Amino acid sequence: MIERIKSLIPAFRSWDGPLTSLLVQEPGRFGLGQLPVERQPDSITTSVCGFCSTGCNLTLHLQKGEAVNLTPDPFHPVNRGAACPKGWEALAPLKSSDRATDPLLRQKDGSYQKITWGEALDVFVSRMRSIQKKNGAASTAYISTGQIPTEEMALLGAVAKFGMGMIHGDGNTRQCMATAVTAYKESFGFDAPPFSYQDFEQSDTIVLIGSNLCIAHPILWQRILKNKRSPSIVVIDPRKTETASAATHHLALKSKSDLVFLYGVARELIQRQWIDSPSIETHCSGFSEFSHFVDSYTPEMVREKTGLSVEAWNSFLQLLQPGRRVSFWWTMGVNQGHEATRTAQAIINLALMTGNIGKPGTGANSITGQCNAMGSRLFSNTTNLYGGRDFKSLKDRSDVSRILEIPLEKIPSKSSWAYDQIIEGIDTGEIKGLWVVATNPAHSWMNQNRFEALREKLEFLVVQDMYHHTETARIADLILPAAGWGEKEGTFINSERRFSVLRKVSIAPGQALADFSIFHLIANAWGCADLLREWETPEKVFQILKKLSAGRPCDITAIDDFALLQKSGGIQWPCRSGVDLKPFDTSPNQERRLFEDGKFYHDDAKARFIFENPREVPEPVDVSFPLTLLTGRGSSSQWHTLTRTNKSDVLKRLSPSSCYVEVHPRDAQNYGMRDGELVTIYSRRGSIRAKAWITTTVLPGNLFIPMHYPEVNQLTLSAVDPYSRQPAYKACAVQIGGIAP
Amino acid sequence: METLTPHVSLPSLASLTDEVNLIDRFLAEQAQLTTAVTRFSQWHEQSPHSLSSKKLYQELIPLEQPKKGEQYGFQVDLDVCSGCKACVTACHSLNGLDDDEIWRNVGTLHGRNDHALQQTVTTACHHCLDPACSNGCPVLAYEKEEETGIVRHLDDQCIGCQYCILKCPYDVPKYNEKRGIVRKCDMCHSRLLVGEAPACVQACPNEAIKIVKIQHSAILELSTHPLVPGAHDSSYTLPSTQYLSKKTQDLEPADATAFKIESPHSPLVFMLVFTQAACGGFWANGVHFFTTGEFSRGLSFLSLFLLLVGLFSSSLHLGRPLHAWKSFLGWRKSWLSREVLAFGGWLLCALVSCVLPEIVTFFSLTPFTQFSITTMNLGTALLAVFCSIMVYADTPRLFWTFHRTAGKFLGTSLILGAALAMIFIPKNFFLSLAVSVAVLKLAMEAGFVRRHLSEESSHPHTQSARVVWVLLKPLFLIRLGITLLGLLVLGIEPISATFFLLIGELLERRLFFQSVRAPRMPGNF
User: Fold this and answer.
1) For residue range A539-561, what is the model confidence (pLDDT) as tens digits?
2) Contact at 8 Å (CB) between B255 and B261?
3) What phi and psi values does residue A317 have, to the nearest 5 degrees?
4) Of A161, A586, B88, B143, which is the most buried if we count CB atoms within 10 A?
5) Closest Cα in chain B, distance from residue A232 (Å)
């Protein structure tokens, strides 16, 4: 009987039907493997990703030209078939309901009114002009970004500076890359990150300083794992990050003791004679002064300042033995410090003195943050004149005037203020009109409460962004709706100097326009469009950039066009005809590093040892504020101020939705705090609430809060490195109080 | 090689000084997609890119199908899992999941005290040898494939009861509200079928995830240890995933002491409390009948009404209630299936015992018939409540062990049954029964919270107690207060009192669902 019933059961079971068919897959064309039926592409294209600086290439699956899905490009020299979650979800933020679809003008009552582009341009021009008339052209400024293509940045630089007469314009790249720029410029003579990602695979010792690579650049960690030389991986970071956990060695230095540590290492290498004297002799200057300078950084002193054990110190030094290929890599842990430039240069010094530069698996290598920070460094025309030139140099101005056929007097002879100086300028009343493009200072700028107060001093704030509701757009007078990544064309330059092409694969919503078009509209409305007749399309601007690069270290004259970039899997600068692109070759080598010939960019072709006494942190801990707050990236699924990543339902699920703070168990015990409790953290500048996560990832005395949560910068300090003017986000004094269940 | 088509056939900038035309030109250009496609799709068709990327991942999957006594399983090398979570998004994109749907997740283990370390753990379905989801499914919507061992979910068979979610100790099946069904990882069954690696395997930049063949005997051997620290006892379902690691022994899940409110499952709250009240009402009437030989018609019909409301409410819990008729299919293993059958039987008996006396009033029922139908009704009622208890007791959730669940469910029956009786057939016996059981029940609930609240431990009871006391305190206090109020006025105002007691029990049941700690793989803070 039971058997008979059992035999009937299959008849009651549905193996197929409408719900099952939702997920049915069939072989994809173009070698893509099985794909859901509904998302089968009829064509594909590739595009560089628009989040971080790694420069992964994504294969976009198109239906009638519109992207419906994507997969990482399996053959690309950068990412080799992998992408981080942000890359996988790159299309989701485009479809958000929060997209800016129309120009919006703030009304007297604080509400926003939809206006036409014509009206928006009138408002923009009339208000900016009236401010300039009253206070001079320098009273209007702009803050740009590392998130838009090089060609758009270049156009913005031309419109704002040559057309509208602005002097001051900077990018949010000040917050991430300025230190590396300054350090390289002073040490090498040009802002030139020397490496190719292949160096990860060719090192014997990989030293990551202030870099949580696994989270910030997951695909670069992949490159480390591809290293067949079983490398020692050293992470220098006060936190036990994901990367520190995955490394072979972790040196948990006390916060901001890295400069002392690096000088101490230099001394020890000199003592042990583990230096490359012939190379120092031929290719460097200033070594003997440096050698004398570091003499006082004894191991005892270093261990005391850094909190390192003798074993950790010794075992680290062993990894720098002559004969080993050592590469040094740094990111924000170094760049966002109060003595960041000197710290970066202390890293460069180590590479120079040990001959770890210009050879496979070596280098003093800054890994960039944003997808096009490197484009901004070379071609944004903000604090540098195009092509890494100097506004103050008549020769450089004349060059640019000649190449662009722009009257010399249109090119400002004054350097631009840095981001922090522009903000100070608002306070002093020197800046009255501000144009913010594709960045979110009301969230990301240090000491946020002060920034909010300064808003009141601005007569006119324009925000040009993909979204209506970024923290900054919400306080703007005028919002200009912009197309985003995937809705326009251009190039990004990645950390290893690789130009890659960004493709248009999606239609921007409503009246949103590519930033490129918006800049042209503004130029036209301002009456300076005549200067920009040649700048018609991104691809034509690329040709202009080639001309601007000619003869510079970043020479790209041998790159024909976007099509060659696409075909080659991107091309690193420099790319000079006959040198980098050999006769009869169609594209250059995919992985090239700088300084193989030992020639640097200073006039004497030598690299310089630059050093300075360490300084006390700007806000040391004390009795009232006994804890040091560190900030940084929280997870690989979050990007900066979350304006984009929070628009993907999946990415949102992959990180805690509200602010949390990492607290060491011992501190938790001292404060009588339990896991998951809501605590108040306050600094001299503000206070926020966060859930306590009691964990050993931080050292006792340190707290860590991911920078992505909008409230965090209420706590951070207004302090910058004096040379790079990059904010020092990584350390300020705080206290915990108000523990509530 | 590619042929370049002209960029866009729009007027050049130089010819447009008029602002309006320029705006229109840019808006028109923005609305065009032709640029990229015409130039680059052609290019791809002829490029080496159109070579299959399949072979890139082939060393990460077995060359041939499992033999008898073997199955496929995930093998995760934790030492190279660095927490990028690409596997989660790749699974989402390549399987065409709905917007916020994920079948894989990445949690974290970390060191306590001075052991500084964190280790991420990627996890999806473990395709268990003895899958609890499948054992609990009332409609046989799970199928463990004979050849591969993959535990597949039959989407069109599913009725959206979500019992598998309660059964799985790894929080694998996910309810999809939009579709009204549960869906889950199928190890990219259709990819493996054509020799392709699953999405997560392809996506991992560090090659941390592989598909391997694993012997059933090996699964049994490995089941003496949890998959990773903090994971549920593997002997329960015999998971086939293997986690390889040199350093996770002394770690604990990042969310070990985290506590969060679980779904209240409101339809189930009403279903349980109302049916249990009905059971109590019938029993009180039965006791009355056996002692006095009389029935309260009112009590009978009110109990029947409560039963009907409860059963109707249960259907609201289903994602696809129209398919609920299939629920008997899983009776051999699923307590939910048995509960459905028991409730069906009880409903029949209850109807007979209430309606038959009404129809046959003219020629009154024989005492034997009356005795029989009453006994049948009371028996099936108890059986149904017993099945309800077993539904929860048969999950791996510690807060729902048999004795605790039985205490709660039977307590509700006694309290509400006695209270209902007080409305129709007030007796001191019912009053003292309701008061004593309710006081005992409140004492046990409060005692539980008090006992476990102060512990600093990752024990599930501590988390349950903290959910109640920290996150749901007002609810808990109302539950206590309103029940005490009900007891106070039960002798005077039985109708209001019953209403208060009913509210109290509904709140208790809501807390029963909301404060349960579901076992799961390590999560995140």
Assistant:
1) 999 999 999 999 999 999 999 99
2) no
3) -60, -35
4) B88
5) 15
